[in-house]
Design a protein that fits this description.
The structure is a homodimer. With about 200 residues, chain A is mainly alpha-helical. In chain A, about 65% of the residues lie in helices and about 0% in strands. The structure holds a DNA duplex (19 and 19 nucleotides).
DNA sequence: ACCTGAACACCGTTCAAGT
DNA sequence: ACCTGAACACCGTTCAAGT
């Protein structure tokens, strides 16, 4: 369950140290100032030059994807856990709440996630993939149970939730507007067939 | 029902002509390329220098608000019309659909509207105000009827709807995701009181 | 193989100089 | 009173030169 970078060819020790320093700096600055902090500052905070910064993260989107990887991995595992929960709708709803919290972890991030999901070739889309596949299982199970709107697919669901505004969150970070969305997806369970 | 600029002190003829040219150019370029076209290009298309451009629209947000004014005025009138419709929920839902269509009129615009609503002192907020007051009437009527979630106010409603992603729209421009939101706000009408 | 920092491109905004 | 365009600030990204 290590959450360090991709498996890729191993990096030289100094390169690995720089990679880690940049990622840590990004986490720190994103947490404090939101994701709009300039790349410049991230490089400075990490103590590396621009060349190094862009060697490891060729674009700011790469950095967004990188700081999301751990969270997405946790959500992937969480989906697997919830897959064995009795009530399919409750399982999905729980997961969606977790995803919403996670997507808004840094101010401004969820908008990028939403936008990234729109481009299948984006870094964020790639980073989402394993999580998305597991969440899809939860989604289909909820739809098969009849308790969930059948007209929405996993990509639309993730896009919708991550497009919710950063405002309208309680102290604990949960969104009031998310309740509207979840309620809108919920369906009254149909009674079991009784014709035989 | 004229929809030309604010009432403000009258402009010199050449100034008025430039104002109109900039606004028309903005409409044209926003329609074709979305709202991210550079101010530069808008000025060039309008045939005015940067000084003129920024004299009339001190900030790009001013331009966003200005190109939205007519649409907001129409939505204000539409709310007044719908206020006399029999079913309070249907009236509100109709208006919200119109608002959604309007907010997404130019690619990228609705995100700015959503963001602008978050700052009460923004140009967009100011431009919205009359429309927002009339829509509030529809909202409260729907809530009083019991057919609508009582936990959402007009600002939250507008923010939520305008935060919906630009994607997931049919040919006619209507959003599939909006249906989820509307459904989430809807409540089964409570039966009329029958105790006396 | 990896690093640094100067340089470039782009875009919103300002301002000195004109009429 | 209003206009123009050069100049500035900011930020993402590239690249020549170093080790």
């Amino acid at each position: 369950m290590s959450t360090t970078p991709p498996a890729e060819p191993r990096l030289r020790v100094d390169a690995q140290r720089n990679y880690d320093a940049v990622l840590a700096a990004a986490h720190r600055l994103f947490a404090e100032h939101g994701i709009d902090v300039p790349m410049d500052e991230i490089g400075r905070e990490a103590g590396v030059g621009k060349g190094t910064l862009y060697r490891h993260f060729p674009t700011k989107d790469h950095l967004y994807a990188a700081v999301s990887l751990e969270r997405f991995a946790r959500l992937r595992d969480r989906a697997d856990e919830l897959a064995s929960q009795a009530d399919p709708w409750d399982a999905l709803a729980s997961w969606v709440r977790d995803f919403d919290l996670s997507a808004h972890h840094y101010r401004g991030l969820s908008g990028r996630v939403s936008e990234g999901l729109g481009r299948e070739d984006s870094e964020v889309s790639r980073a989402c993939l394993p999580m998305r596949a597991r969440a899809d299982v939860l989604l289909r199970r909820a739809q098969d149970s009849g308790e969930m709107d059948p007209n929405i697919d996993i990509k639309a669901l993730l896009t919708l939730v991550s497009s919710l505004p950063d405002s309208y969150r309680d102290g604990d970070g949960s969104s009031n507007l998310l309740d509207v969305v979840l309620n809108g997806l919920h369906r009254a369970p149909s009674p079991p067939p009784t014709h035989g």
